[in-house]
UniProtKB/TrEMBL annotation:
Family: Belongs to the bacterial solute-binding protein 5 family.
GO-annotated molecular function: peptide transmembrane transporter activity
Protein name: Peptide/nickel transport system substrate-binding protein
Cited CDD domains: PBP2_OppA
Gene Ontology cellular-component terms listed: ATP-binding cassette (ABC) transporter complex; outer membrane-bounded periplasmic space
Length: 548
């Protein structure tokens, strides 16, 4: 009976209720953890970065009102950020300072995602010391030498190990680079630091965004956010609108039913089948910076030959694969979404394998090894990507060029695509996967396919490793260019190696994210990175949800 009285979707509670796919695993944005995707809705609502992204994904000022960029005598890139002087933490009294970045970034260098900080000068030394269990004093000395320095209260100097033109884009999105409230954190023991973030109370943890966390109920799987009037980043209010005073993020297996009964105000559509019927008037969607593609096991015959992989990529009619499955589709034969800065031009896209069934049939004729069925592995369970239908249609289309495909839906998908046969190669033949951008830059799409990336394709073994080495060299040269405009041609060449010459993957479409939201809520959205966006949320004139 006591359990029945706990929080639930049907319990009256003030403010808006928003269904999210997962609860955060931590509120400590500097220390974080590898399952960080679940933390982003809260982090993006409560914190801010030095930069932000415009509607066209270009880099704009955020906590920094401006910056200068240069290189030192060793060729290292450095940025001098001038902080906004009107930004206060959520107590309304403590100003943002450059020290907040020094404290936050150094904590991130010690945290569970510390490898994400490796672009900063000196961080690799810190990582090496941590790896070998060096004394704490040595680690602290190395931290003091890293490339983050407060020149004064309002000026931050950041030095990178080597030039990286994606760095400003990462600052906007990757929350490890958000500042930490140094006035609260400095001098605390590790236990006190955990308590500060794990038990929100008395207005802590401090926030910079339009909301702060008031309560984190792990057992009830709820996070309550309250409006932060001290934030310099308020939503743009029109006549009669007002900020939402309270938002409860909650997880529920019956979110769609709760929405239908008026108990919650926002819900993701996490089943593609739910989009096949009549469309409700409050259905919305966001084009994601994301690509869904087919991966080839390049180590296993007959897919160890690039000419076979290219032919299979040409056998796929992307328009027909998606026809009728979703309200809107964006078929593609390229990895980089067209909205991404630096994406391929139409001429560059035309050079990559695209649908040509007769050519595919001719190229596959007589190829040895295609007599055996190819096993296509995909994730079992509901998804906003119509995986079952796409897999079935791939099998049907490849049958038209003489290739038999058997389907294997797996609940242990990640383990299965990594599993190796007794002979050595991985056990699958092809698998389906979605890749979403972490920040608005081509680099974020390519890192998966580098030697240390989790692509599980085996393409590092192709031609003695020369194609991958050339691919990584192109990326290194592109990343080191001063601007994305200067780097764009090399990123296009890298895509040509991966998708065209080697055909490691066959891109299929750029997904959209669908959701339902009450009309009285304005600005409640999903951003192109597939995260709930609350920073523009405001209530329309009239009776707000949650007070019915």
């Amino acid at each position: 009976m006591l359990a029945a009285w706990g929080p639930c979707g049907f319990q009256p509670e003030p403010g808006l209720k928003v269904i999210v796919p997962a609860m955060p695993t931590t509120l400590d944005w500097s220390y974080s953890d590898p399952a960080n995707w679940a933390n982003y809705p809260v982090m993006l609502a409560t914190q801010k970065g030095l930069t932000t992204l415009g509607a066209d994904h270009s880099v704009r000022p955020g906590l920094a009102e401006r910056w200068e960029q240069g290189r030192d005598a060793q060729g290292r890139e450095h940025y001098t950020f001038h902080l906004r002087r009107d930004v206060r933490w959520s107590d309304g009294a403590t100003p943002l300072s450059a020290r907040d970045f020094v404290v936050g970034w150094r904590r991130a260098m010690l945290g569970r995602e510390r490898g994400e900080m490796a672009d900063l000068a000196g961080v690799r030394e810190v990582l090496a010391l941590l790896e070998r269990g060096a004394p704490a004093g040595q680690v602290q000395e190395a931290l003091a030498r890293t490339g983050v320095e407060a020149l004064d209260a309002h000026t931050l100097r950041v030095t990178l190990e080597r030039p990286r033109n994606y760095f400003l884009s990462r600052l906007a999105n990757v929350y490890l680079f958000f500042p930490a409230p140094s006035a609260d954190l400095e001098g605390l023991t590790e236990e006190a630091l955990r308590d500060y973030f794990d038990r929100p109370r008395d207005g802590r943890p401090r926030a910079l965004g339009p909301y702060r966390v008031e309560r984190w109920d792990r057992a009830g799987e709820r996070v309550r956010l309250v409006h932060n009037p001290a934030s310099a980043f308020q939503p743009p209010l029109e006549a009669g609108e007002r900020p939402a005073p309270v938002i409860t993020l909650m997880r529920s297996e019956i979110g769609t039913a709760l929405y239908a009964r008026g108990r919650v105000d926002f819900v993701f559509i996490d089943s593609a089948l739910a989009l096949r019927g009549p469309r409700p008037e409050d259905l919305r969607h966001e084009p994601l910076l994301s690509t869904y593609f087919l991966v080839f096991n390049t180590e296993r015959p007959p897919l160890d030959r690039p000419e076979v992989r290219r032919a299979l990529a040409r056998a796929l009619d992307r328009e027909a694969l998606l026809a009728g499955l979703l309200p809107e589709v964006r078929p593609t034969n390229v990895l980089l979404p067209p909205e991404l800065p630096g994406a391929a031009t139409p001429e560059e896209a035309a050079r990559l394998p695209r649908f040509d069934r007769e050519r595919a049939r001719e190229e596959l004729r007589g190829q040895p090894g295609l007599q055996r069925p190819l096993r296509l592995v995909y994730k079992s369970g509901d998804s906003f990507v119509p995986e079952v239908a796409i897999a079935e249609r791939i099998a049907a289309q490849l049958a038209q060029v003489g290739v038999t495909v058997v389907l294997d839906a797996r609940s242990d998908f990640s383990s299965e695509v990594a599993r190796r046969t007794p002979e050595g190669p991985r056990a699958y033949d092809v698998y389906l996967r979605r890749l979403g951008a972490d920040y608005a830059h081509p680099n974020t799409f390519f890192t998966l396919f580098e030697h240390e990336g989790n692509h599980q394709s085996g393409w590092e073994t192709q031609a003695g490793g020369e194609p991958m080495a050339r691919f990584e060299r192109l990326l290194e040269e592109a990343d080191a260019e001063p601007t994305l405009a200067q780097a764009r041609a090399r990123y296009a060449q890298a895509q040509e190696v991966l998708v065209g010459e080697q055909a490691v993957i066959a891109p299929l479409y750029h997904p959209d994210r669908y959701f339902r939201v009450r009309p009285v809520l304005r600005g409640l959205d999903v951003n192109p990175f597939n995260f709930l966006a609350l920073d523009q949320l405001r209530l329309a004139p009239g009776q707000p949800p949650g007070e019915r």
